[in-house]
Amino acid sequence: AERLWIHTSPGERTELSCTVFSDPESKVEWFHEDKPVDLGDGRIMAYREGEKHKLIIKRVTSPDLGFFTCRATNLFGRGQQSVHLSGIANPAAFKRGPKQSSNHNYTLIWEVESYSSIIEYKLLFKRHQGSSELTDWTEMIVPADPSSLGPIHSQSYTLWGLQESTVYEASVLSRNRFGWSRPSHIFRFATKGADLSVKEDDLQELSEQDEAKEQVLRDFIEKKIVNVEEGDASPMYKENSWSSGFSSTHTLSWGLSTCLLATLPYLLHRLS
């Protein structure tokens, strides 16, 4: 099953919820790292509201970080969905604002959600080209603002010496005490005189180019930038970990549109 990824931090309250539709009714169990969740001390509670099965962690601890699985079983089979509870930051999001560009410089602005302090950022940028090759990316470390308390951290950085009337693209990663985040989506910007507008007929092709570039970028980061060790809390290079949605609240759910997460797959047979 596809694995989702959720940002949290020790000390936070977290609620997981999966929606199960089955006939006959299923038995639903929660597992952490393939072991039944311990509900004995009252810190973690499981309960049901109709078709929604919820797991509440009143106060997250470091050992809680890892994979939680909601497993539903009936006479016809078993279905399950897993989510990775991790302390690494959410991917950053670039912002556009007035007076960010001039003939030869551009001020990049981005925000990142992290319950833990950001230590530093890794910024990558290059001239915009159709190719997904990574030979011309420029990398630099940007120190984080130590006064930023979060959970929303804002950062800006001005690139100098850019070419006039030129389109560029950038991506950024954030590092907190749990490791490096995934890279942001590719952000396209330009110095004065360049045209950033895209014809409607070219949108699909541009989107496909960006998807290819982002995949190559992730592979490049895995091999060249971030030293990912086995057992690291970061799921950024685990199988299927790139396609999940994210929640900006402490309530994390499968199947609830307010949390932007995927619905539990219909893996159980329904009687006709």
Query: What is the average per-residue confidence, as pLDDT, rounded to a whole number?
Result: 77
CATH topology call of the largest domain = Immunoglobulin-like
Annotation, overall tally of beta strands = 17
- What portion of residues belong to β-strands? 35-45%
Number of helices: 1
User: CATH H level of the largest domain: which superfamily?
Assistant: Immunoglobulins
Largest sheet: 5 strands, mixed
Give the N-to-C terminal Cα separation. Answer: 25 Å
Helix content estimate = under 10%
Element string (H = helix, E = strand): EEEEEEEEEEEEEEEEHE
Count up the domains.
Answer: 2
The coarse overall form would be elongated
Q: Could you say what the CATH architecture of the largest domain is?
A: Sandwich
Uncertain regions: pLDDT < 50 for 5+ in a row?
226-272
Q: Compute the gyration radius: what is it? A: 21 Å
CATH class division of the largest domain = Mainly Beta
**Which structural class do the helices and strands define?**
mainly beta
Looking across the biggest beta sheet, what order are the strands in? Answer: 1-8-7-3-4
Protein name: Ig-like domain-containing protein
Pfam families: I-set
Keywords: Disulfide bond, Immunoglobulin domain, Repeat
GO biological process, one term: anatomical structure morphogenesis
